[in-house]
Each structure stands twice: as structure tokens, then as C-alpha cells.
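Hi F.,

I've been meaning to write this up properly since the lab meeting, where we talked about keeping a consistent format for the predictions we share between groups. The idea is simple: the sequence comes first, exactly as it goes in, then the C-alpha cells exactly as they come out, then a line or two of notes. No screenshots and no reformatting. I'm using this chain as the first example so we have something concrete to point to.
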Amino acid sequence: MGMLQAGIIPVTPFQQNCTVLFDPDTKEGVVVDPGGDVETIVKVVEENGFKVKEIWLTHGHLDHAGGAKDLKAALGIDIVGPHKDDLPLLQRIETQQLKYGITGLKNVEPDRWLEDGDKVSFGNHEFEVYHTPGHAPGHVIYVNRAQNFAHLGDVLFNGSIGRTDLPGGDHDQLMASIRDKVLPLGDDVGFICGHGPGSRIGDERRNNPFLQGI
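Output, unedited:
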């Protein structure tokens, strides 16, 4: 097995970071947060010869989960995550897209919900699951201890934090998730987030204006 690698496919008008996590030796991997543009995702998978095991969702917002049902059908794989508290969001994707002038996204329910403390994996690459509400009630993050890597979805960004003004958002809850679940992962942990460039937790601890004093 090779070192864990990641490729990002920006999808939807929100330019959400749909992520392929994969092993370069076996080409086995998963797709995290296929928010839309499923034909593009499938093309990338096919052109690179990826053997996608599962779809992992960080949360139920339309730009992260709106393409999951079609990608499941295209690849014949299961959808895993998020936490069950995001079911109402997943059931409103088709309605929510109308507010943004988007079409083609679909409501979805995963084959398996995730809980805090669960583990998910592909090949020898194991990830710990943390329930991190605040941006969305059922938001989860995926942490690979072996390589000091995390996928944080929309909890923490490079220089910012997740929005809490959307349905189900709670600023105090988000800050508690960052303080109690994300920062303790360690300064050396590098992360991919749901939008924009990634970072390291230590850099955000020192420089992110939203994290000062927590």
C-alpha cells in the first residue's frame, strides 16, 4: 500500500472541494462530498483508473451531498455518513437548490449513518470519525492518524470557519467542535476543507482570526 493521496474536483457553482482520497499503488479510494457535476467526477474516476469503494459525506448541505445519489447509481457503491442529525438537510436538497438556481441535485439518504468514534477505511487507510456539529447538525470529519491528515468539510477553513447562518447552524456549537474535536488533533495535522485551499491545524491555531482566544 502506498501513501494516502488526495485529488480535488471543484463542483457546483459553490466550487465545493469534492475530494478523491486514494492509494496510489492500488488505486483504491473513496469520494468525499460529491456535491454535483457527477459526470465530471465519473470522468476523473475513469480516466485515473480509481477503484472507488464508497462515498463519504461530511454533511448534508446541497453542495456537498447533492450528487451523491447519482454517483452511487453510476458507480454501484454505498454512501456512508454523515451523522443522522443531518437527515432533514438531506431530505431538502431538491427544494434548497431552487433558491440558488441550481438543478439536477437530488435528495439522498446514506446506506450507513456515522457516529462519533466510528472508523471507516479503504485498503489499509483507516480514518477516525468525529461528530462536529455547528455548521450543520450532523457534520462529521475524517481523520487519518497514520499520515496526520484530516478532511474537515466546512468546520474549519484556511483563515476562516464554517458559516452558522444556514438552517441548523449554531455558532457556539461550531466553536465548541473546533475547540474540543479539531484543535486537539495536533498542530502537525494537515487538512482539506470544503472550499478553498487547505492548511495545517497549527497554522490556523496561530493565524486564523476566528480561533484567537478559544
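Notes:
The first helix runs from residue 38 to 48.
Helices lie at 38-48, 62-65, 68-75, 87-90, 93-99, 171-182, 201-207.

If this format works for you, I'll send the rest the same way.

G.
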